């Protein structure tokens, strides 16, 4: 298991870095990637993690539901009112600029990516198949994280060196998160809480960060088709990996 977690965590680094490099090299729309990523995260949260969380909780759906709600609200409050994560729209607010200059924005991106890495390791502690699907979803999403890191920093600073520094830190964070789970094993009685927490985490990312980017600009049927393809790809992969 350790070899798989380490290898897949390195792929999250590559995905994040490539996303940032693409954002540095182009100003074009990446809405179709956001569409696929949002679909895959919705599917991984509801098709893979949610059933496992309910099973780990001994069928106590109420506990799982409250943890998911708390996780969603926590990330909403943290990313919108304390830290800076994805920045939507063409303008840069004074608050966002202040956060970024002070280093809080960069910290928010790194913390978010660190949790992505933990989700990979925690999922592998439940089941190899679940861990693989979660890792693929995170790898896909981390491309978008790399794009967001560069987009955020470039909107408040023209320094490519600053953007690259934030990008490297963001790319390393999920690797460190995944490796941390190799040193600390989640107690079995807490697995339901951990899985439910990441259901809320992934639902927040998809609903509040990726789907708005997917719908930016004119209505696109092709973006919707890619979004559905993201959902179906995870559903099919889950069925293939099911014991």
Biggest pleated sheet: none
Fraction of helical residues: over 70%
Order of helices and strands: HHHHHHHHH
Strand tally is 0
Quickly give the structural class. mainly alpha
Kindly report the average pLDDT value: 78
Give the number of domains. Answer: 1
Any idea what the shape is? Answer: globular
Count up the helices: 9
Proportion in β-strands = under 5%
Backbone CA Rg: 17 Å
Low-pLDDT sequence parts: 85-106
How far is it from the N-terminal to the C-terminal residue, by CA?
17 Å
What does this structure look like?
This protein is 83% helix and 0% strand. With 243 residues, it is an all-alpha fold. Helix 1 (2-25) runs antiparallel to helix 5 (104-126). It has one domain (2-22, 30-241). It has helices spanning 2-25, 31-56, 61-82, 94-102, 104-126, 128-156, 160-183, 191-214, 221-241. It has nine helices and no strands.
Topology:
Elements lengths: L1 H24 L5 H26 L4 H22 L11 H9 L1 H23 L1 H29 L3 H24 L7 H24 L6 H21 L2
Helix pairs in contact: 1-5, 1-6, 1-7, 2-6, 2-8, 2-9, 3-8, 4-6, 5-6, 5-7, 5-8, 6-7, 6-9
Task: For this entry, give a set of tags.
single chain; 243 residues; mainly alpha; 9 helices
Concise overview:
This protein is mainly α and 243 residues long. It has one domain.
